[in-house]
Amino acid sequence: MNITPHRRISKTKRANAIIPDFILNLPDEKHLIIDSKMSLNAYESAVSAEDEIERQAFLREHIKALRNHIDDLSRKDYSNLIGVRSPNFVLMFIAVEPAYIEALKMDPSLFWLWLRQKCHYGVITPR
Question: 3-state DSSP call for residue 97?
Answer without folding.
Answer: helix
